[in-house]
Specification:
Length: 197
């Protein structure tokens, strides 16, 4: 039987024979199947991996924020999440809603690390009605430092690249020295007759 099924990537219907099946495991342990056009498969997989990375980095970021703010992770109010997502998506709306055009969650986490002490210090000179206010204040500090961390990363990248070049040069020099100073192969090893004279 060749019934038509919907592709989980492009949304178009297709014959089952033209589809590959992705079996997905739920947290409960049960599985369900997604049909994907053979032609859509590679894009489907790379998109799936992208979304998994996004999810992981987002979780790591929320964990870090909770740690810096000093609250259990389950006490980060869900009303705060859209603010983080907005930063991730990018603020400039050129055509409709921008989608994941801003800094990555991993980069935002780096900025939080960079601002860690500043955010902690806020508690000593400012009081907040609730944790939400503190979270927004911390986020404002982070937003103000995005450019600084970007510049820092660029500098680190340049330094690392220079270091790589230096190390490569040293490697080449070592190699040249090894070639130069390589001792001549021993003559005695295979010829025992020398000792018998
Ligand atoms: Zn498709």
């Amino acid at each position: 039987m060749n019934r038509e099924v919907k592709c989980a990537y492009c949304g178009e219907k297709g014959k089952k024979i033209d589809m590959k099946v992705d079996e997905i495991q739920r947290q409960s342990g049960t599985t369900f199947k997604k049909n994907v056009h053979i032609a859509c498969w590679d894009q489907y997989i790379s998109n799936k991996q992208f979304l998994e990375t996004e999810k992981k980095e987002r979780e790591d970021l929320i964990t870090l924020i909770a740690e810096i703010i000093n609250i259990p992770i389950n006490e980060v109010p869900s009303s705060f999440f859209p603010f983080i997502e907005q930063l991730r998506n990018g603020n400039e709306k050129i055509k409709g809603t921008k989608y994941k055009q801003g800094p990555t969650y991993a980069f935002i986490a780096d900025v939080y690390e960079y601002c860690r002490q500043d955010i902690i210090d806020v508690r000593s000179y400012k009081s907040f009605d609730d944790v939400f206010g503190y979270l927004l204040y911390g986020l404002a500090i982070v937003k103000n430092n995005i450019y600084n961390v970007k510049r820092l990363h660029e500098t680190q990248k340049i330094v690392a690249e220079k270091q790589d070049i230096i190390e490569q040069q040293i490697d080449i020099e070592h190699l040249e020295q090894e070639v130069e100073y390589k001792p001549a192969a021993s003559k005695t090893s295979n010829d025992i007759s020398d000792f018998l004279d």
